[in-house]
Design goal:
Elements lengths: L16 H22 L8 H4 L1 E9 L10 H17 L6 E5 L3 E7 L4 H7 L6 E11 L5 E2 L5 E2 L20 H13 L29 H16 L5 H6 L10 E8 L2 E7 L4 E2 L3 E9 L4 E8 L1 H14 L9 E5 L2 E4 L10 E5 L4 H13 L5 E10 L2 H29 L2 H27 L5 H30 L4 H33 L3 H31 L3 H4 L9 H4 L21
Parallel strand pairs: 7-13
Antiparallel strand pairs: 1-3, 1-15, 2-3, 4-8, 4-9, 4-12, 5-6, 7-8, 10-11, 11-14, 12-13
C-alpha cells in the first residue's frame, strides 16, 4: 500500500491567514486615516435627516408659445437642473415634476445649498450679440414744481473690465446715439434700416432693400425703448428683453461695477449657448482675475470666427460683442482680431460667481422660463424621529442575531461578532468618505439598506460555519475541516452575494430619488461582505483552529464532535488484517 503524501495540501488549500489579515488591516487604517485627514468624520445626511430647502418652480410659456410647456420640455428641464445642482457638489438633491407645469427641487442642508438655490431656476439663455450702441444708465427725470422734468445725476461707468467705459449720455443725446448706431453697418456688414434711410456718407450696399413702414415703426419703438430704459430699476432690468427672439435686435442692461449699470442696444444673436461645448471658471494668473472660459462646438467655432472677423473691422463700440445671459449683459469685450475655437467672459467675477456661471453654461439652458412659486425650509424633526425608530429597530435586530449566534454557535459567535464589527467600521468610514467624494448622502432608505445588510453578512458566516460542522460530522478534525469546508462555502457565498448585488444594481438603475439610496447602500454592504469574509472571517477561523479551545473541540467552542453527532473514529486509521493460524488453515 502506497504511503500517503505528507506534503500534499488538503482540499481547499492551506491558506496563509497572516497576509490576508495584514491586507485588511492596512486598508482599514488607510481609510480611517483618510477620513480624519479629509475632516469629514461623519456621513453626509439627506434632506429627510438633515433638513434643507424645498423649492417649487412653475413653468411659464412665452406669448404665443403656450404649447412649449409639455412633458418633453419639463423632463429636459428636470435633467438640466439636477445636473446643475449635483455639479455644485450638493448631496442627494431631488428634482422631480409635480403635475403639468411644476418642478419640485429638494436641496439638503449643506455647503453649497445657497448656490444651488440661486441656480435651480436660472434659465441660462446665452447669446452673443453685436453691440450697436451703449450708454450709461440714468434714472427717469424727476418732476419739478412747475410740472416739467429735470434730469437727475446719472451714474458713471467703470473701465475696470472688458466693458469699455462710455461717456454718460443724457436723455437728450440718447436718441442721437441710437440713430447713429442704427445707421452704421451691423455685424453682417449690411446697413441697418432707419426711419430716415442710411446715414449721409455711409456706403450703402447695392441692392439693399429700402426700409418699409413696418421696419420704420419697429426701429422707432426700439429707439424709444432704448431712450427710456432705466437700468437702475430692478423691475425694468427683469422685464427687458422678454419675448425678444434671437433674430431680433433688442436692448439690455449690464453691470459694470457694483451698483453701476450701462444700457446696450444689441443686434440679432450671432452665436447661441447651444454652440458652447464646455465652460468653466478659472483664475487668470497674469491678470489676477477670475474669468469664465468657453470652448465651442465645431459649428459654434465657425459662427464665432465669422462674427469676430467682422467686428474686428468696426470702431468702438461696434467692435464689441455682448455676452447676454437671460437678458443681462454679463460682459461686452472688444474684438481686435478674429477668434474661433474658444472665448472668455471677464467682468466683476469672484471665484464663486465665475464657477457658478461656468457650471450653468456647461449643462445648458433650460427649455422653459420658470417662476419661483415658493421656497420652504424643511426641518429634520420628522426625519430625526424616523431615524431614531429605525436605529432602535436595527439595534433590536442586531441583538437578536447576536443572541442566536451565541446560543447556537457558542464560541464561533466570537468570530461572527468580530466580523460584523469590521464590516460596520468599513461601511461607516466609506460612507463618510463618499460624501465629499461623490456627494453621497445618508437618508432613511439608505439606513434601511444598512440594516438589511446585517442579515446578508450574518448569512455568510452561517454558511461557512455549517460547512465546517459538516466536515466534522464526517469524522475530520478541525484544521482540515476548516480548509475543506472553505471551497464549498466560498461558492455559496459568492453566488448569494452576486444575486444581492445584482438586485441592488437593477434597483439603483430603474429607480430615482431616495430609493436609490437604499439600493446604493445595499450594493456597497454586499461588496464589503465579500471583502470581510475573504480577508477576515476565513483567516481568523484558520488561526483559531490551531488553538486548543477550538482544535480539541471544547464543548463551548460550538465545534464539539459529540454535540455535532460525529461518529468515531474521528480520524481515519489504517485497517490491519489479523494473521491466519497455519494450523487452522
Amino acid at each position: 500500500m502506497a504511503a500517503p503524501n505528507k506534503g500534499r495540501r488538503p482540499a481547499g488549500g492551506q491558506s496563509r491567514p497572516g497576509r490576508a489579515l495584514a491586507l485588511i488591516l492596512i486598508a482599514m487604517v488607510a481609510l480611517t486615516g483618510g477620513m480624519f485627514w479629509s475632516g469629514h468624520t461623519t456621513p453626509r445626511l439627506g434632506i429627510d435627516l438633515a433638513g434643507g430647502t424645498s423649492i417649487t418652480l412653475k413653468a411659464k410659456a412665452e406669448p404665443g408659445q403656450e404649447s412649449a410647456v409639455n412633458e418633453t420640455n419639463m423632463n429636459t428641464a428636470v435633467g438640466i437642473i439636477e445636473r446643475r445642482v449635483n455639479g455644485l457638489g450638493v448631496s442627494e438633491a431631488e428634482v422631480q415634476t409635480q403635475g403639468r407645469e411644476n418642478i419640485i427641487v429638494n436641496i439638503p442642508k449643506g455647503t453649497n445649498e445657497k448656490q444651488a438655490r440661486e441656480q435651480v431656476g436660472t434659465t441660462a439663455q446665452l447669446y452673443f450679440r453685436p453691440v450697436l450702441a451703449v450708454a450709461a444708465a440714468t434714472p427717469e427725470p424727476a418732476p419739478t414744481a412747475s410740472g416739467s422734468t429735470a434730469p437727475k445725476p446719472s451714474a458713471s461707468t467703470s473701465a475696470g473690465d472688458k466693458k469699455s467705459a462710455t461717456p454718460t449720455a443724457t436723455a437728450s443725446t440718447q436718441g442721437r446715439v441710437l440713430s447713429e448706431a442704427l445707421k452704421a453697418p451691423n455685424a453682417t456688414g449690411t446697413p441697418t434700416p432707419t426711419p430716415t434711410g442710411s446715414a449721409s456718407g455711409t456706403p450703402k450696399a447695392s441692392g439693399t432693400p429700402q426700409p418699409t413702414p413696418s421696419a420704420d415703426a419697429a426701429t422707432t419703438a426700439l429707439q424709444q425703448k432704448f431712450t427710456t430704459l432705466n437700468c437702475l430699476d430692478p423691475k425694468a432690468r427683469a422685464a427687458v428683453g422678454q419675448g425678444v427672439k434671437p433674430t431680433e435686435s433688442t436692448v439690455a442692461c449690464g453691470e459694470d461695477a457694483p451698483g453701476v449699470w450701462s444700457k446696450y442696444l444689441l443686434g440679432p444673436a450671432e452665436v447661441e449657448g447651444r454652440d458652447v461645448e464646455d465652460a468653466k471658471g478659472v483664475l487668470d494668473q497674469q491678470r489676477g482675475m477670475w474669468i469664465v472660459t468657453m470652448d465651442f462646438t465645431e459649428a459654434g467655432s465657425k459662427k464665432f470666427q465669422s462674427i469676430t472677423g467682422k467686428l474686428s473691422q468696426q470702431a468702438d463700440p461696434q467692435n464689441r460683442f455682448a455676452i447676454v445671459l437671460d437678458g443681462n449683459v454679463v460682459s461686452a469685450p472688444s474684438v481686435r482680431q478674429t477668434l474661433s475655437a474658444s472665448a472668455e467672459i471677464s467682468g466683476n467675477f469672484n471665484q464663486q460667481s465665475a464657477q457658478d456661471l461656468g457650471n450653468i453654461l456647461s449643462y445648458g439652458a433650460l427649455p422653459l422660463t420658470f417662476d419661483t412659486q415658493s421656497v420652504d425650509t424643511v426641518t429634520a424633526a420628522l426625519g430625526g424621529d424616523q431615524l431614531e425608530a429605525g436605529l432602535i429597530a436595527g439595534a433590536i435586530g442586531l441583538a437578536l442575531v447576536i443572541i442566536y449566534l451565541v446560543v447556537y454557535y457558542r464560541g464561533l459567535s466570537f468570530i461572527a461578532i468580530l466580523s460584523l464589527g469590521v464590516s460596520a467600521l468599513l461601511t461607516y468610514v466609506i460612507m463618510a468618505l463618499l460624501g465629499p467624494a461623490i456627494g453621497f448622502a445618508l437618508n432613511l432608505p439608505a439606513v434601511c439598506g444598512a440594516i438589511v445588510a446585517i442579515g446578508i453578512t450574518a448569512d455568510s458566516f452561517i454558511v461557512y460555519f455549517e460547512r465546517i460542522r459538516d466536515e466534522i460530522r464526517e469524522g475530520r478534525t478541525l484544521r482540515p475541516a476548516v480548509e475543506r469546508a472553505w471551497p464549498r462555502a466560498r461558492r455559496t457565498i459568492l453566488v448569494s452575494d452576486f444575486v444581492s448585488f445584482l438586485a441592488a444594481a437593477v434597483l439603483f438603475i430603474v429607480t430615482v430619488g431616495k430609493v436609490q439610496g437604499f439600493a446604493f447602500t445595499l450594493g456597497l454592504t454586499t461588496l464589503l461582505d465579500v471583502v470581510v469574509v475573504f480577508l477576515f472571517t476565513k483567516p481568523v477561523m484558520t488561526l483559531l483552529a490551531r488553538t486548543k479551545f477550538f482544535g480539541n473541540g471544547h464543548k463551548l467552542s460550538g465545534l464539539d464532535p459529540k454535540s455535532l453527532g460525529a461518529k468515531p473514529p474521528l480520524r481515519r486509521t489504517r485497517r490491519t488484517t489479523a494473521p491466519v493460524d497455519p494450523k487452522e488453515a
